[in-house]
Amino acid sequence: MKPIITIGYCPKCGWLLRSAWMAQELLTTFTDDIQGVLLHPSDISGRFWVNVGEQRIFDRNEAGRFPEIKELKQLVRDMVNPGKSLGHSDRR
């Protein structure tokens, strides 16, 4: 079964648009590899995190920053389709 990616974000911080843009990028890149992307408004202020299934792959509080989209695509790829080429977003 293909995983669902969940993006948790703080609506009070105004991070919905950032989360929606990241969801769009992931849906475009991983069309055949994921079931979908769920945007999850957090009850806790200042939160931003990304899960693939139940696995947390990024947490803003731990990293102290938001992920770059290139980095996020690499993290998702490594979980859902490690052999997939990301073109210009691949590590060099």
Short description:
The protein is of the alpha+beta class and 92 residues long. It is 33% helix and 24% strand. The protein has one domain: Glutaredoxin (3-Layer(aba) Sandwich).
Gyration radius, to the nearest Å?
Answer: 13 Å
Approximately how much helix is present in the residues? Answer: 25-40%
CATH topology: Glutaredoxin
CATH architecture: 3-Layer(aba) Sandwich
Main beta sheet = 4 strands, mixed
Number of strands: 4
Kindly give the count of domains.
1
Stretches where pLDDT is under 50 for at least 5 consecutive residues are: none
CATH superfamily caption: Glutaredoxin
Neighbour order of strands in the largest sheet:
2-1-3-4
**What form results from the Cα inertia axes?**
globular
- Helical/strand content category: alpha+beta
Query: How many separate helices?
Result: 3
Q: What is the C-level CATH assignment?
A: Alpha Beta
Mean pLDDT: 95
Q: Could you state the order of secondary-structure elements as H and E?
A: EHEEEHH
Relative strand content: 15-25%
C-alpha end-to-end distance = 31 Å
Spell out the key features of this protein.
92 residues, globular
Helix/strand layout:
Blueprint: E1 4-9, H1 16-29, E2 36-41, E3 48-52, E4 55-59, H2 60-63, H3 69-80
Parallel strand pairs: 1-2
Antiparallel strand pairs: 1-3, 3-4
Describe the structure.
This protein has 92 residues and is an alpha+beta fold. It has a single domain, classed as Glutaredoxin, CATH 3.40.30.10. Helix content is 33%, strand content 24%. The chain contains three helices and four strands. The protein has helices spanning 16-29, 60-63, 69-80, and strands at 4-9, 36-41, 48-52, 55-59. It has a four-stranded mixed sheet with strand order 2-1-3-4. α1 links the parallel β1 (4-9) and β2.
